[in-house]
Design goal:
- By secondary structure, this protein is α/β, with parallel strands linked by helices.
- The protein is built from 16 helices and 14 strands.
- The strands form five sheets. It has a five-stranded mixed sheet with strand order 2-8-7-6-5, with helices on both faces. Strands 9-12-11 form a three-stranded antiparallel sheet. It has a two-stranded parallel sheet with strand order 1-10.
- Helix 7 links the parallel strand 5 and strand 6.
- Helix 4 packs across helix 10 and helix 12 runs parallel beside helix 16.
- The longest helix has 20 residues.
- Bound molecules: ligand F0G.
- The site of ligand F0G has 15 residues, from helix 4 and helix 5.
Length: 459
């Protein structure tokens, strides 16, 4: 008999979680103004809101925490992290920040000015936020297949070279500070970018004299997909693949809360000393002195170890197979999800799931609320609420896809939990025709509204 697959770790510490009743959840979500961000964590049984900062650290990472050096300047933890970043990504310069958006804030303060254009593949919302906040424009050049939920394309995070070249041709070089390549591409469903595409984007960027910046939040998951799906990489280690990926980038912003497997942290990686000097000033102003940025010494130590563990094949195989396990269960129930299944999350097609709810009534949010009420599972809307309003016209931006994202924290839940999530969603699926009312916005913030929005049921 062939031995079944099992996790590449065992557990040494656990945290109790509690089931609740449907009646409790109905009341909690109503008091939370139908915004899942307002729920208290003990009102949630299985929390798939995000895979960001929610992972479980290893014994090696906890051991590294104890060796943290909290010196203001020149801490050994800073040098541990500096060495790890240089070894894994090849960047000789780096600046620690408290998380990914802080890295964006510091780097974009250095490079992005009013009226600039930043082309890329479905920029993450904080990335876009930091571009638009500076009155610049993010232009999405992702391939069209990314928006076709059933397209079997293996690298739906790829940049469309023709779209990119059109942008590069249409604007002067000085108004394009960099091209951003998000690996994996969160906003298009945790979909990877191929090595071939990275190589081609970099070659085009070089030709136009424009630098390339990687948004590296889930770089290791991207490398895993390259190993499995792209010709010529099957026999390469994840670390070898990562090394090659970063020969096609001049700089990076990183949210370490994902593939760094830490609960807080981020950094900027750079090749240019001149840029490092300029960015350092902003880092000192916004984050902290250059040898700690937004991080404590112990956290930098844990991250140095996390980057090493996070680029090991066995770890990534365990992680991504769990995401696939949930996705395949949903497929077996006939539930429409994005295919191929992404690296960090399963994305449910809410428009196909709830065809009776209009897009103006926030269909993916409606599905997220139904799943919470059904099973105490918290997912997140990746749809019209998140897409926000056009900064100029203030009209709702309606994205092509309305998705419910079920993001899976690293090393936290078992496949039994995945069974509960899938059964909960199946129960909602079975009564989908009875769900006919969505939600209206009663109040929203002028930017990044999804975090604080107040919703009410439509009449
Ligand atoms: N880039 C990508 C691709 C991300 O997914 C995120 C965060 C960030 C940048 C910003 O990093 O949160 O450390 O400031 N994504 C989280 C998520 C919040 O749930 O997908 P941060």
């Amino acid at each position: 008999m062939e031995l079944p697959f099992a996790e590449s770790y065992k557990m040494k510490m656990v945290e109790p979680i509690r089931r609740s009743t449907r009646m409790e959840r109905e009341q909690w979500i109503s008091s939370a103004n139908y915004n899942l961000f307002n729920l208290k964590s003990d009102q949630v049984f299985i929390d798939l809101l995000t895979d960001s900062g929610t992972g479980a650290m290893s014994d090696r990472q906890w051991a590294a925490m104890m060796l943290g050096d909290e010196s203001y300047a020149g801490a050994s933890s800073y040098y541990n992290l500096k060495n790890a970043i240089e070894k894994i990504f090849g960047f000789p310069y780096f600046l620690p920040t408290h998380q990914g958006r802080a890295a964006e804030n510091v780097l974009f303060s250095t490079l992005v000015k009013q009226s600039d254009i930043v082309p890329g593949n479905s920029h993450f919302d904080t990335t876009k936020g930091h571009i638009e906040f500076r009155k610049a424009t993010a232009v999405d050049c992702t391939i069209d297949e990314a928006f076709d939920i059933d397209s079997p394309h293996l690298f739906k995070g790829d940049i469309d070279l023709e779209k990119l070249e059109n942008v590069l041709r249409a604007h002067p070089r000085e108004s394009i500070p960099f091209i951003i390549v998000t690996v994996t591409c969160n906003s298009s469903g945790g979909q990877p970018v191929s090595m071939k595409n990275m190589r081609e984007v970099y070659a085009m960027a070089l030709q136009y004299g424009i630098p390339v910046c990687f948004d590296s939040a889930r770089f290791a998951e991207n490398a895993y997909f390259i190993k499995l799906r792209e010709e010529g990489y099957r026999d390469k280690s994840i670390k070898e693949i990562v090394s090659e990926m970063y020969t096609y980038a001049d700089m990076t912003t990183m949210s370490s809360k994902k593939d760094g497997i830490v609960n807080m942290g981020g950094f900027i990686g750079l090749r240019s000393e001149e840029l490092f000097r300029r960015a350092s000033t902003f880092n000192i102003m916004f984050e902290g002195y250059i040898t700690y940025g937004g991080m404590s010494g112990r956290d930098m130590n844990a991250l140095a170890t996390g980057l090493d563990e996070g680029t090991e094949f066995e770890y990534l195989e365990t992680r991504i197979r769990q995401v696939e396990y949930l996705g395949n269960l949903l497929i077996s129930y006939g539930i429409p999800i994005q295919k191929p299944i992404g690296g960090h999350a399963v994305f449910v097609d809410a428009k196909a799931f709830l065809p009776k709810i209009k897009q103006e009534e926030y269909v993916a949010q409606t599905l997220a609320i139904e799943l919470y009420k059904e099973a105490g599972v918290r997912g997140v809307e990746i749809g019209t609420l998140l897409a926000d309003r056009d900064p100029l016209t203030r009209e709702n931006r309606y994205p092509g896809l309305e998705l419910l994202r079920l993001a899976i924290p690293r090393r936290v839940y078992t496949n039994n939990h995945m069974d509960v999530v899938a059964a909960g969603l199946k129960n909602v699926w079975d009564r989908r025709n009875e769900i006919t009312r969505g939600y209206n916005i009663a109040w929203e913030a002028p930017i990044m509204r999804h975090f604080t929005v107040v919703l009410e049921k439509t009449k």
